[in-house]
Write a structure and sequence with these properties.
Elements: E1 23-31, E2 34-47, E3 52-59, E4 67-73, E5 79-86, E6 91-97, E7 106-108, E8 115-118
Antiparallel strand pairs: 1-2, 1-8, 2-3, 3-4, 4-5, 5-6, 7-8
Amino acid sequence: MTDIGHEAAIPNPALAPLSFLVGEWRTEGSHPQIQGTLHGRTTFAWSDGGAFLVMRSEIDEPGVPSGIAIFGTDDDSKECSMLYSTSAACRAATSSRCAATSGSGGVTRPASPNASLRR
């Protein structure tokens, strides 16, 4: 590990609403092209002193790619961006307002209504 840029490794307060995600989760969901319920695991961890949130995921179904996503924010636009890459060499970026809610042990992401996370 290098000391270059270590001053920038500070917590990002705009990502604080996502802090309840930090840890390891069992996942289940569905996909329109795969029959049945899909099961997997997802972890969330802070990176660079809390400047970013990193998600790593894998699904037990053969052929479903594993993924890595990095979440960060833009102070001016107040948008949260996610860069992700999968084992299927799919790379993309999305951005939206940072908002998260925790319920009774589960989280549903609006962009994927058939996916849920459970501790």
